Structure formats: C-alpha cells, structure tokens
Amino acid sequence: MADSDSYLKWAAGLLDQLPAGWTSTLAVVRTPIVPSPAQITAAVSGTRSGAAEPPAVVSARALRRIAERDRPDAILLACTGPVVDVLAGDVFGGLSPRPVLVSGLPGISIPATEKAWLYRGACDLFVVHSGREVEEFGRIGRELGATGSMALARLPYLDHRTAGGGTGDRLVFATQAKVPKRREDRESILLALARLAEARPGLDVVVKLRALENERQTHNERYHYERLWRSLAESGAVRPGSVRFAAGAMHEHLAAAAGFVTVSSTAALEAIAGRVPLLVLSDFGVSAEMINLVFEDSGCLGTLEDLARGDLRHPTAAWCDANYFHDPATSDWVARLGSLIAEARAGRLAPVRPLLTGPEHAAARRRARLRVEVPPNVLRAGYRASRRVRRYLKALG
Asked: Which domain of life, per UniProt (predicted)?
C-alpha cells in the first residue's frame, strides 16, 4: 500500500518486477496526503496495476481487515516514514501468520539518513536503488543496530524505456515540492524558461507539475509554480501562454521531449534512461538540502543561463554505473524477498526489533496514528480550528 503520489508510482513499478505467478493487490491508505483520482491514474500509468481497476483508497482499519482475510505472504509499505512506523507497529502488528514487511524509498536517496532507517526499523527488508545507497544505508543500519536487511532493486521507471530519445519538440521542467524553497528562486526558474520559449518559438516549454494547486503530494509546496507564473504574467514580467503547465504521467511527457530540466527530481533518471538530454540546475547550491548532491560529477549540472540558452547535457558512463543504472541482474530484492517468505511459511521468520522505542516515541506515534485513522478533511479542519485558537490566544496575550 502507498500513501502519496510518489510512493504509489514507486509501488506500482516495483510490483511489476515480481516473478510471473506471484499475485499482488495495490491500495492507497487514506491520509491527509492521499492523491487525487487523477494523480492515482497518472502514478500507475504504464504498469500492470494501471491496466486494472485503479487502486482503492481505504482506511488503515480496512487494510487490517484485508490482511486478516487474505493472509498475504508479504506487505509492501510504500509510505512516508511515520506512516510506515504506524502501519508496521500498530496496524499490522500481531498478524498471524506474520507477513514479511517490506519498505523502501521511492527515488534518489543520497545522502542516506538515519531517519529513513529509524522509521523503517520494524521492517524485514529495506529496498534502495543503487550500490552507493546500499553501502551508505547499510553502514547506518549497522551503526543503529537494525535487524532488517538491505536489498537492491532497479528503480522501476528506468526499465520503461522512453521513446524518442530527445527528438521531440518539448522542453520539460520537472518541479520538486521541497526545493528550491525561496519564492524568488522559483521565479528565476520561470523567467529562464520564459526566455528560452521566446528565443525558440517552435519549442513547447512545459512545466510538469507534481500536483495541481488543489491536490496534495508527498511534501507540501508553499510556492506553487502555476500561481507564481500568474503573478509574473500580471506584472508583465513574462508573456502569458509562452510556457504551459501540465500534470499527468512523466513517461508520456518524456516521450515527446527534446530536453529535460529540474532542480532535483527522480524524473531526471527517467530522462537519462530515455536518452533525453538534461540539465540539473546548480544555481541554488549542490547539497543534501537541495537533494541534488548525487548529481556531482555526473556532467549534468548547469545554470539558469545554460537553461535560457537551451544548453543541455548527457551524464558520464562512470556516474551511471555507480548511480541507479547498474546491471538489472545484480538486483537482489526479489530473491531476498523470496527467501524471507520461505522462512515465514516455515515458521522461522526471525523477529525484527523496532529502532524507535520509549515514551517519547510512543507520543510521536500517537500523533502519527492520527494521519492514518482520522479522515483527512476532519484532520485539516481540526488543524485550521486549532490555528485560529492559537491566534486568538496570542492576541489576548
């Protein structure tokens, strides 16, 4: 099960890597970041899950009932960290027979962090997507005393080869909710895209949105690009219509792409897989905070001036080998999962020791549990009400 658009896309792709004869069911757990119907359709597009009925959105309690009824061999917790912790520790705790619990991260995860391990410490298998990630997360897991094991998989989107290879007529800018944070930085990107559109009238310049203004996504987006564009157009800084905004499946956009640009997005890897020239913007820094540290020495870093000129690049072969483009034959997550399932069926599945324990974590888990037990509209209404109360009390002094 998944809890957001990015995790749903990852889960659908990962399930496609399972051997023939394995059966699976994909669902979305209802939380405040639940994707819209359009986001769900886009996330599973091009996968076996997308060829069937759209994944259902269900409550955590319903997920427990489904697990009790179907007695699955394994459960993939494709969710944000706090939700994984609640599902593994509370919702699916005590199931008999105990299923293998699998989790992981849906995209670029360099540098590795303790937090990712801590929330997933109660899972049997932790899936990542490059040799570098296996090494870094493995080291952190050993330092924390994690009892779950690491596994390597190819990022699912990289095996869905994009047609075109950069011969289309579209320049795709993939947004990222978290970075850059500052409004002026985001506006500078839009201004560079507008300059490129004016310089090359035949080029279809598209801002590929993760979510429309009224939709939720994995991370909150304070300054939505479409809203910023309207403001720039109203001030006369850009020509309305010179850049267009679109949602939908990334692989469909890349199929018509002449080039790809981002600040930090896993979609950059999809562009590389499809041989689409790209640019990873470095104007706002290259760091863990900007989620683009992994692109150092890739040959793909460039500036807003490069973007305005349409100067795009291809990564080096050495970088590709070390980062996400390993031989699919070296991926071991399915084999490791199969071994764990065999252990579980034989009643020998070793217990996994959660990494988050103690009263402080219990309080945090109670707060996180609200995310999977209270309907999102009630939770949002309660938050707005509490915010109004805080403002009122502050005014009273």
From this structure: Bacteria
Paired tokens of 339: 């071994």
What whole-number distance in Å separates Cα of residue 14 and Cα of residue 125? 14
pTM for the whole structure: 0.84
Contact 243, 197 (CB under 8 A): yes
Residue 59 CA to residue 65 CA, distance in Å, equals 10
Question: What is the amino acid identity at position 150?
Answer: M
For every residue of 155-181, DSSP letters joined together read -GGGGSPPTTTT-SSEEEEEP-SSSS-
| DSSP output for 113-171 | -HHHHHHTTT-SEEEESSHHHHHHHHHHHHHHT--SEEEE---GGGGSPPTTTT-SSEE
75, 99 contact by CB (below 8 A): yes
| Pair 102, 15: CB distance under 8 Å | no
Condensed to tens digits (0 to 9), the pLDDT of residues 255-271 reads 999 999 999 989 999 99
Nearest Cα to 1, choosing from 85, 44, 57, 43? 57
The SS3 assignment for 251 reads: helix
CB 259 within 8 A of CB 277: yes
